[in-house]
Amino acid sequence: MASIRKRGNSWQVRIRRKGYPLLSKNFPRKDQATRWAQQVESEFDRSPYAPTARPELSVGAALVRYGEEVSSQKKGARQELSRIKRLQLESFAALDITELRGRDLALFRDRLLADGLSGNTVRLYLAVLSHLYTVARKEWGYERLSNPCDDIRKPAVGKSRDRRFEGDELQRILDETDSEILQAILQLAIETGMRRGELCALHWLDYKPAIPALKIQMSKNGSSRVVPLSPRAVELLEALPRSGELIFDVEPDSITRAFRRACDRLGIEDLRFHDTRHEATSQLFEDGLEVMEVASITGHKTLSMLMRYTHLRAGTLAGKLARARPR
């Protein structure tokens, strides 16, 4: 059945029939919208858009296909496939791809935000679904498929975080967790400024002890870089068992969950694993490295992004001022 409503300066027609894809179109005048709706409904009756024109496909099955054909080709494949696994657990995964509605995704969005996920993280989940619908419409034969992600508000992009490890928080987390992998990754993240996904993708062949350094073959921004290692970072790597090709054979999300559990048990609030990157970047500046030196280590391409990850402690700066301007 067709519904016509005013949206801004245009009239929107939405036509839904069970077993058929949702049709939506905007017109400058209501009479044009009415005529189009009547024409399409008449064509529905003659069945040019019959469901037999394309196979039924659930959202869950579409996610599997999207993961195999699209996500697997991306440089961030592991992270996106992890998001797909979570999406497949949602109740809407059982719906036909033509039946998923904006209200379903609005509830999903609100639940993730209530669970404490950041607006940026929620946007990543919605981006997977949105692109899935774009691919289905353009490449899978669902030309008239409407994208339900277009019908909901996206969470606001969060402001830059300035959380760093305070006092003995780092040591308390290391003492709390039984995961030797988390202990090593957490310390190495702070020593190198590497992202969670970069650490989990490291192979032993990427370790260059003669320099010493780690080579990141493919970073988030699509380029490789060589990260010099401190003596402590070398010590951490040399202490790890070499039982396979990967230095850390673990999923990135598993690291995040283990870190969050340790913080929860300790009552440490508003601290995320990604804050290790803020901590590392800030420490590099506090150690006296120049802007270009820090950027070459962290992989930040712009000064503005580097600034988002730099939060120098007032006490450290005061000490430098005291040394530079003694009485």
TrEMBL record:
Domain Core-binding (CB): 57-137
Stored SUPFAM superfamilies: DNA breaking-rejoining enzymes
Molecular-function GO terms, alphabetical: DNA binding
Domain of life per record: Bacteria
Keywords: DNA integration, DNA recombination, DNA-binding
Pfam families: Phage_integrase (PF00589)
Domain Tyr recombinase: 160-322
BP-aspect Gene Ontology terms: DNA integration; DNA recombination
CDD domains reported in the protein's UniProt record: INT_Rci_Hp1_C
Keyword DNA-binding: yes
Protein's recorded name: Tyrosine-type recombinase/integrase
Naturally occurring in which organism (per UniProt): Craterilacuibacter sinensis
